[in-house]
Design brief:
There is one protein chain. The chain is α+β, with helices and mostly antiparallel strands. It has 16 helices and seven strands. It has helices at residues 2-8, 11-14, 18-46, 54-75, 83-102, 114-125, 128-147, 156-159, 162-241, 244-247, 250-277, 290-302, 325-341, 374-378, 395-406, 434-441, and strands spanning 286-289, 308-313, 320-323, 345-353, 360-367, 410-415, 421-428. The chain has a five-stranded mixed β-sheet with strand order 2-4-5-7-6. The longest helix has 80 residues, at 162-241. The radius of gyration is 34 Å and the shape is rod-shaped. The relative contact order is 0.06.
C-alpha cells in the first residue's frame, strides 16, 4: 500500500521536485477521472436508462488504473521528470477522454468541456511548446468528435428533447470543472511558490558560500603574509624564555607564557578560518573517540575561561572518530562567544542520539548572558549578524553554521528559560567515523 500513499499525500510533503509534484497531481486527477467515469456510467445506465456500449467505455478506466499503478512504481524510484514525460502523461488523459466521448455521443456530450481543464493544466505545468502540443491535440480530438462519434441511444423521455439533457449535463460539467480547476490550480501554484522559495534558499546559500570562499582567499593571503612574522615572534619568545632575568622573575615568566599561548592561539585561529572556508578535514587529523574529543575541547578552553567551564558528559557509547583541528576550532568559536558574554559560567553538554548510520553527535554550549534578541535569532548564521554591536561581528557563528551545514549537520540556537542562550551543534557521526574513512582508503 505504500506505493499508493504518494498519490494522496500533500504535494509539499511527497514531492522532492516541481516535476514530481506535477506527476502526483496528474495522478490524483486521473484517480478522480476513474471514479468519476465509473460513477457516471452507473448513473446514466441505471437512473437515466441510457443504453451504453459498456465494453469500450470500461476500457478507458481500466487503462488509467494500469497507468497509475505503473506511475506508482516509477515514483518510488524517480525524483524528477522531463517535460516530455509530463506531456506524455497529460496526453494519456486527453486520449482516454477522447475515447470515452467517442463512444458516448462525441461533441453532443457536454463533458467535452473537460478538454479545457487539461489544456489549462498543461499550460501551467509545461513549457510553452509542450503546452501548445497538448492544446493542439485536444483541438484535434474535438474536431474528430464533431464529425465522427457513436451516437447515444436515448430513451423516449429524453429522445424527444435531447437539448434539455445536454443543458443539465453542461451545468454538472461546469461545476465539476470549476471545482477541479480551483483545487488543482491552487495546488500547482502552491508547488510553484514552494519551488521559488527553495530556489531562493539555494541562491542565498550560494551567496553565503561565495562569501566564505572570498573570506578563505583573504585568510589564505593573510596566512602567507603572517606566517613568517609569527614564526619569528615564536622564536624570539623562545629565546626570551631562556633568559635568566625572565626565568628568575615569576611574573615575567607567567606573562611570557601567556603571550606564547596566545600566539599559538592566533596560529590556530588562522588555520581554523582557512579550513572553514574549504574542507573541514585535512590538517593533522587524529584518531580518537567521541568522549576524548569532547573532553579535550573542554580542557583546552577551560584554561582560557576566567570563571568555570562545566562539562556534562552524557555519551552512553564511546565511538572512534577522526578528530580534526579545524572542527575543534569551529566548536571553539561557539565556546569563545559564550565565555565573552558569560565569563563566570559556561556549560557544555555532549551526547549521541539516533542509531545506525543516522547517529549524530550533539554538542550544546550554554551561557548565562543576555541571550539572543528576536531579530538577531531569526538571522543567526548570516554574515555580520551579531549581538555585540561592533562592525564585522557575527562572522564566527556564520562560519560555524556553514561548516556544520557542509558536514550535513545543523546549528540551532535558543534562549533558556532560566536566562542566557544555548547553541546546539548536531553533527552526523558518519562524517567523523573512523570506520568509514578506513573503508574509503582501502584499495
Amino acid at each position: 500500500m505504500r506505493r499508493f500513499a504518494a498519490f494522496f499525500a500533500p504535494p509539499d510533503v511527497a514531492a522532492s521536485s516541481p516535476s514530481r509534484s506535477s506527476v502526483i497531481l496528474l495522478t490524483q486527477l486521473r484517480w478522480i477521472a476513474v471514479f468519476g467515469q465509473l460513477a457516471t456510467i452507473i448513473v446514466v445506465a441505471t437512473a437515466l436508462d441510457v443504453r451504453l456500449p459498456l465494453a469500450p467505455l470500461l476500457l478507458a478506466p481500466l487503462l488509467l488504473i494500469l497507468v497509475n499503478v505503473a506511475v506508482a512504481r516509477i515514483l518510488l524510484q524517480r525524483r524528477a521528470f522531463s517535460q516530455r514525460e509530463l506531456c506524455s502523461a497529460l496526453m494519456i488523459d486527453v486520449i482516454a477522454l477522447c475515447w470515452q466521448l467517442y463512444h458516448s455521443g462525441g461533441a453532443t456530450n457536454p463533458f467535452t468541456f473537460l478538454f479545457l481543464l487539461q489544456i489549462v493544466i498543461g499550460a501551467i505545468i509545461l513549457e510553452a511548446r509542450w503546452s501548445w502540443f497538448v492544446a493542439l491535440n485536444a483541438c484535434l480530438c474535438m474536431a474528430l468528435l464533431t464529425f465522427r462519434y457513436v451516437p447515444l441511444r436515448l430513451p423516449d423521455p429524453y429522445a424527444q428533447d435531447p437539448f434539455r439533457l445536454y443543458i443539465y449535463g453542461s451545468l454538472f460539467c461546469f461545476v465539476l470543472a470549476a471545482v477541479l480547476l480551483i483545487v488543482f490550480v491552487e495546488r500547482l501554484d502552491r508547488n510553484r511558490r514552494d519551488s521559488d522559495a527553495q530556489l531562493a534558499a539555494y541562491r542565498h546559500q550560494a551567496a553565503e558560500e561565495d562569501h566564505i570562499i572570498r573570506m578563505g582567499l583573504l585568510a589564505s593571503g593573510a596566512a602567507h603574509e603572517l606566517g613568517t612574522p609569527l614564526s619569528s615572534i615564536s622564536v624570539i619568545l623562545g629565546d626570551w624564555s631562556r633568559e635568566p632575568a625572565i626565568a628568575q622573575d615569576p611574573d615575567m615568566a607567567a606573562d611570557l607564557a601567556d603571550v606564547r599561548r596566545e600566539l599559538e592561539r592566533c596560529k590556530t585561529i588562522v588555520t581554523g578560518i582557512l579550513m572553514s572556508a574549504g574542507e573541514v578535514r585535512g590538517i593533522d587529523p587524529a584518531v580518537t573517540d567521541v568522549r576524548a574529543f569532547v573532553e579535550d575541547i573542554a580542557e583546552e578552553w577551560r584554561v582560557r575561561t576566567p570563571g568555570e567551564l562545566r562539562l556534562v558528559d552524557r555519551i552512553a557509547e564511546n565511538v572512534q572518530i577522526i578528530a580534526d583541528p579545524g572542527l575543534r576550532q569551529i566548536i571553539g568559536n561557539v565556546i569563545d562567544n559564550a565565555i565573552e558574554v558569560s565569563p563566570d559560567l559556561v556549560l557544555i553538554e555532549a551526547w549521541l542520539e539516533g542509531a545506525g548510520p543516522g547517529r549524530q553527535l550533539v554538542f550544546t554550549v550554554s551561557d548565562r548572558g543576555p541571550g539572543f534578541a528576536a531579530d538577531v535569532k531569526a538571522r543567526i548564521g548570516q554574515p555580520y549578524t551579531s549581538t555585540k554591536g561592533r562592525d564585522g561581528g557575527g562572522l564566527g557563528l556564520f562560519l560555524v553554521v556553514n561548516v556544520i551545514r557542509k558536514l550535513g549537520g545543523l546549528v540551532s540556537v535558543e534562549n533558556r528559560e532560566s536566562g542566557g542562550a544555548s547553541v546546539q551543534l548536531t553533527i552526523p557521526l558518519a562524517t567523523l567515523a573512523f570506520e568509514s574513512d578506513a573503508r574509503e582508503e582501502t584499495p
